[in-house]
Amino acid sequence: MRYRFGSREIDFSTRTYVMGILNVTPDSFSDGGKFFDPERAVERGLEIAGEDADFIDIGGESTRPRGSAYGQGAGPIATGEELRRVLPVIRSLVRQTTVPVSIDTMKAEVAQEALDAGAVIVNDVSGFAADPAMPEVVARADATVIVMHMRGTPQTMQQNTRYGDLFGEVCETLGAAVQKAHDAGIRQVIVDPGIGFAKSFSDNLRLMGGIARLQPMGCPVLVGPSRKAFIGEILGLPVDDRLEGTIGAAVATALCGANIVRVHDVRSVRRALLVADAIYHARG
User: Fold this and answer.
1) N or C terminus of the chain with fewer C-beta within 10 Å?
2) Which CATH number fits the domain that encloses residue 275?
3) Does the active-site annotation cover 262?
């Protein structure tokens, strides 16, 4: 699977790629407020690039779920506020680095403005469910889209975690989103099973262990395990002490078939993946 992102061509069969998270928000579950100031956000974006991230994913609206692990969760914000948060950061980073930039948004208007500013990927955690105009916006820009599996909204999703057929239902929803993307003329689609989004603790583990079951869709598979609640439940540790758990989850999902991992701690995860990939590709 060879995809082009601006001037970069990536062959997803060669190794596991790393997407660095840059939340320009006051309320994200892990780093909310740390990079809310645009100048600090740009500094962090350049740090992520310097840590050899393959992509930088910039988000201006938190998807922190409502529930026992994260409290009241994050509420929606206005389009204008989301644009105010992300556009200065995107414009600055695309001038200063060649790392492909992704916009993490469910709003077609935000995606359009971000693509105009230099982003080349749209990461839609709703999988096109939130805004029916999204496929056309992505297709018109000849951009890449990431479609994720989620039920409901961040406020409601953890109330809907029961599945009769976990893999069947996740693959059916993602497959429909992929088809919608192709029907709109989008050529490059990445799928994300949505770890932590409308999933129970055991379902998160099952999905990560069974990532290969998403591969028949013919798209690269992205997994986002970074610092999430399932790691805290396993290790009994707070969100700011889950580095080793994140590394373990990233390596395990890579060995199970993930093509991209989306993480906060880029340098540490990338180093671990380079070793894991080298061992995997050298196996007899």
Assistant:
1) C
2) 3.20.20.20
3) yes
